[in-house]
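Tokens for chain A. Residues wanted.
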């Protein structure tokens, strides 16, 4: 049953641990809850913020509107054939728990995305990715509520217009729909992605051979790597990678490599562009381990901005702007936030 509350602290609901309040708060357990909300006249004109796991969000102050937390649960095997499983999950399902559910049952394709914070509903909005795999590679369709009418619409892969950490829900359809469920097409025969990052090295350290390689082994390796590099939000407030990896023209990359021979780059297929790790750029600008008050750049991963306790959203954002400025001055490259600023 829908329950609207007033003046709710958002600190437990954002992984940065920022102190901020919502004027109104509602938790959606079922699409019908949102449809009920649409008919409550006193909230129709109130600005609304849709919240999943709060793991890709920087709050820069109180939200003078309604925060709607999507908490629709449930995982269902919709169908299968000789090659694939189609699995549907509610938008409020914890992402990592969903990945573990699939790994345990031998549903292949999500193992490289283990231990990413957040919820299933947020995954396609951001087209989350890690270690050579992105959501769009395993995505089948999603269901979403129209925020004005309450009608449910199904979006196909093509209609989502996926890009690097992008989808139609961040651009043309921004603030128009609320994702309620996502269906994934997963494989019965795994295609292993082990060449990205330190996965192959970590698998070797774990004693995994070509003969014993499995989706669980890949998942375990990814979890080990992430835990070694990224801070736990339960211990240090953060939202994971704060910046996107920039994509620059190949000519610019080659010119920069003259001065910086060790600059890593990953050519993008069918383009004349190269993806450069933002963490490397930030580290070369001297930010790794930097701290101003309680706002800082993580000591082990320069791509992660952290809240050591009492930093405000404005202080984290000010640090982010300084990092962007220095990277631009040193390399002539613009790095953009991956997190959503509110």
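Reply:
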């Amino acid at each position: 049953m829908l329950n609207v509350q007033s003046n709710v602290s958002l600190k437990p609901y954002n992984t940065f641990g920022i102190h901020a309040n919502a004027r109104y708060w509602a938790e959606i357990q079922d699409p019908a809850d949102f449809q009920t909300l649409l008919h409550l006249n006193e909230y129709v004109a109130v600005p609304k913020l849709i919240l999943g796991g709060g793991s890709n969000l920087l709050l820069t102050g109180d939200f003078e509107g309604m925060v709607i937390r999507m908490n629709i649960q449930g995982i269902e095997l919709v169908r299968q054939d000789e090659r694939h499983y189609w699995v549907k999950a509610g938008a409020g399902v914890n992402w990592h728990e969903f990945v573990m559910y699939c790994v345990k049952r031998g549903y292949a394709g999500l193992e490289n995305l283990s231990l990413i914070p957040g919820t299933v509903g947020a995954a396609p909005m951001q087209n989350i990715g890690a270690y050579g795999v992105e959501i769009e590679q395993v995505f089948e369709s999603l269901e979403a509520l129209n925020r004005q009418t309450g009608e449910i619409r199904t979006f196909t892969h093509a209609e989502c217009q996926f890009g690097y950490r992008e989808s139609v829900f961040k651009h043309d359809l921004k603030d128009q729909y609320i994702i309620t469920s996502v269906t994934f097409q997963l494989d019965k025969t795994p295609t292993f992605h082990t060449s990205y990052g330190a996965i192959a090295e970590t698998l070797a350290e774990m004693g995994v051979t070509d003969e014993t390689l499995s989706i669980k082994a890949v998942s375990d390796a990814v979890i080990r790597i992430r835990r070694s590099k990224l801070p736990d939000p339960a211990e240090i407030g953060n939202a994971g990678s704060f910046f996107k990896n920039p994509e620059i023209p190949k000519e610019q990359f080659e010119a920069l490599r003259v001065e910086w021979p060790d600059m890593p780059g990953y050519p993008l297929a069918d383009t004349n562009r190269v993806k450069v790790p933002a963490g490397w750029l930030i580290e070369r600008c001297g930010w790794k381990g930097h701290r101003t008050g309680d706002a800082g750049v993580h000591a082990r991963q320069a791509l992660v901005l952290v809240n050591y306790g009492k930093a405000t959203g404005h202080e984290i954002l000010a640090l982010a702007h300084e990092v962007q400025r220095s990277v631009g001055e040193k390399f002539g490259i613009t790095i953009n936030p991956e997190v959503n600023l509110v």
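The CA atoms of residues 250 and 270 lie 12 Å apart. Residues 313-331 form the longest helix (19 residues).
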